[in-house]
Amino acid sequence: MAFDQLSVVLAGLAILIAAGYTAHSRMGFTDVPSSLPMVGKHHGFLADLRTRLASMGSLLPVIEAGYEKYSKDGLSFVIPGFDRAMILVPSSQIKWVVDQADSVLNAAAMQIEVLQSDWTLLDSSMARNPVHEIIIRRDLTRSLGALIPGIEEELNVAIDEYWGKNTENWIDVGVFTTMMKVIARTSNRIFVGLPLCRNDEYLDNAGAFSTDIAISGALINLIPEILKPLLAWICLLPNRWHLYKCSKYLHPFINQRIQDLNNARAAGETTERWNDFTTWYLEEVADHSDPSLRSPEKIMKRLMTVNFAAIHTSTFTATNMLFDLFSSPNAAENVQEIREEILQVLSEHDGKWDKNALGKLIKTDSAIRESLRISTFMSHGMTRLVVDPKGLTMPDGLHLPPGTRIGTSTHSIHHDGDIYENPMVYDPFRFSRAREVAETAKSQAVGIEIPNGKDQKDYMKILESKNLAIVTTSDTFLAFGHGRHACPGRFFAAAEMKLLLAYIILNYDIKPIGFRPANGTIGAAILPPMKASISVKRRKN
Ligand code: HEM
Q1: Can you give 373-435 as a three-state secondary structure string?
Q2: Is the CB of 488 under 6 A from ligand 1?
Q3: Is the shortest distance between the CB of 309 and ligand 1 below 6 Å?
Q4: Is the minimum distance from the CB of 407 to ligand 1 under 6 angstroms?
Q5: Do 527 and 182 contact (CB within 8 A), yes or no?
Q6: What is this model's ipTM?
Q7: Residue spans of beta strands (DSSP E) within 272-401
C-alpha cells in the first residue's frame, strides 16, 4: 500500500477514535473563558462534535464573520478547533501580543501543540531547542549578499529545466508543481549546497516529509493524549519512511562536510567556501557540551525542520504571486512596468543582481507584497500559547488561564476596507505608490521644519509608508507574522521571490489568465490552486 493511501486509512481510523472520544468525554470548550463570544458554533443534536468537525473543513468564513461582528469594534472572539478553541484578538491588540515576554505568551509552545512537533519532527529537541531559528535569523540574513549569485543561478537553472526553452510554441506548465521543485532546489542550495540541492530523490522526499508533518500533526492532534504513545507511531510511518529516503543522501553528505570542515580547520584554512546552513549549524554547535548535537542523525532532522519552514511557505507564495499578477486587470501593462524597472536596475548594476540592486526593485517588491497581502495562506496567524503558570490578563481585564490559545485574524485584517482601499483588488503597485510619495515628501522636507499637531501626524504617516517593503511587518501586514517571532527567513524569501519574478518576466511570456483560479481552504490554511496551469513561451532575447 502506498504511503498516501496509508495516510487516508490512518486519517479515517484516527477520526473515528477521536470522534468517539470527543462525543463521550469532552463536551463543550472549557479551554477559553465562557464570557467571550464563540463564532461557528453548531446547535442541537451532537452540537459540540459537529462544531469540532466543521472546524476541520474551513475556518475562513467563521473567522470573517467574527472579524466583522467583533474585531471591527475592538473585541476578541473565539473560534472552535477540533481539539481546542482559540481566541482571536482585534488588530488593536496585536501590539499587546507582541509586547508579551516568551515566558508568558509563547510561539514555539503553540507550534509544538498544533504541529505535534515532539512527534512529527521525530525528535522533541527540534522544536524545544530551535537553534535553527537563531541560525536563520543571524547567519542566513548576514550571508544573503554573498549567497545571491548562487540563489539566482539555482532559480534560473531550475526554471529553464521545468519551463523549458521553447521560443516557438506555448507550453502548459503546472504552476504549483513546478514552483515546488524550483523552491525546493533553491532552498536546498542554501541548506546543503551543490550538488545535493539538485538531487530529485532527496528533494522529493524532503518535500514529502514537510507534507507528512502537516498531515501527521493533524492526525496526532485527534488522538487523546493518553493514547498517543500507543497510536502516534502509526501516523508517523510516512515521516520515518521519507526521512529514511533522505538519509541515504544526507548521511554521507553530512559526514563528508564534518570531515571537510575538520580538515580545513586543521590546515588553518577558513571554512567560508561552505557557506550554507549545514556549515552554520556545525559551527554553532562545534563547542557545545552535548556532542549529540553534532551527530548526523540530529543534523539530518534539523535540515528536515528548515525544509519544512521554507518549502511550502515559499511555494505557496510563488504560486499565488504568479496567479495574482498574471490574472490582474491590466496584467500586460503591469508586467511591462515591472519588466522596465528590472531592466533599468540591471543596467545600473552591470547586469548583475546584488543586495543593492534588489533593494531598488520597488515596483517588483510591491507586486509581491501585494500578493502576500491579498493571498495570505493563513486565515489566522501569530498564534501563541499562554505559558505563564499565573495566566495572563488581557487589556480589557479578562484573565486567561495557562494553556489558552491566542491568535489574530490575518486574512480578515489584510482584506479590511478600513485598512486597505479596494481590499479585494490585486493592485500590484499599491505599496510602491505609497513609497514613492513618501520618498518625495522626505526629499522635499530636507531643511524644512516638521509641522506640529495633526499635520505632523499625517506627515509621519507618509514617512512611515516608506517602510512598505516585503520584509516590513506591521499590525496590518501579517504575512510573515509580526514582532520578535516574525519569520526570520523573510529576507531570504523576499530576495528569492524578486529574483524568481525577475527571471520569469525577462525570459518568458505568459498568456494572460482570464480569471484567477480560486484558492482552497482547509482548517485554518488557505491553499493556492494546486492543479491550475499557465501557458508559457520563452522570449527571444
Ligand atoms: C514567503 C515565504 C514565507 C512566508 C510567507 C513565511 C511566513 C512565516 C510566518 C507567518 C511565521 C510565523 C510568525 C509568527 O508567528 O509571528 C514564520 C515563522 C518562521 N519562518 Fe517563515 N515564512 C516564509 C519563508 C521562510 C523561509 C524561507 C524560512 C527559512 C529559511 C523560514 C523560517 C521560519 C522560521 C524558523 C520561523 C519560526 C520563527 C519563530 O518562531 O521565531 N520561513 N514564517
Answers
A1: HHCCCECCEEEEEECCCCCEECCCCCEECCCCEEEECHHHHHCCCCCCCCCCCCCCCHHHHHH
A2: yes
A3: yes
A4: no
A5: no
A6: 0.99
A7: 381-386, 392-393, 399-400
* Composition of the chain by helix, strand, coil, percent to 5: 60, 10, 30
Residues 6+ apart with CB under 8 A from 295: none
314-344 per-position pLDDT tens digit: 999 999 999 999 999 899 999 999 999 999 9
Identity of the amino acid at 523: G
Length of the chain as a residue count: 541
pLDDT score at 1? 46
Across the strands, what pairs with 536?
171, 510
Quickly state the pLDDT bin for 33 (edges 50, 70, 90).
confident
Element (H, E) at 145: helix 141-163
Nearest to 209 by CA among 246, 176, 179: 246
CA-derived radius of gyration, the chain: 24
**Residue of 91, 487, 526, 527 with the most ligand 1 atoms within 8 Å of its CB, for mutation:** 487
Task: Please name each of the domains of the chain with its CATH number.
Answer: 145-193+308-378+421-475+479-541 (1.10.630.10)
All three cell numbers of 490: 523573510
Residue 457 pLDDT greater than 80, yes or no: no
> How many angstroms is it from 495 CA to the middle of ligand 1?
14
8 Å CB contact between 155 and 184? no
Strand partners, 406: 87, 384
CB distance 385 to ligand 1 below 6 Å: no
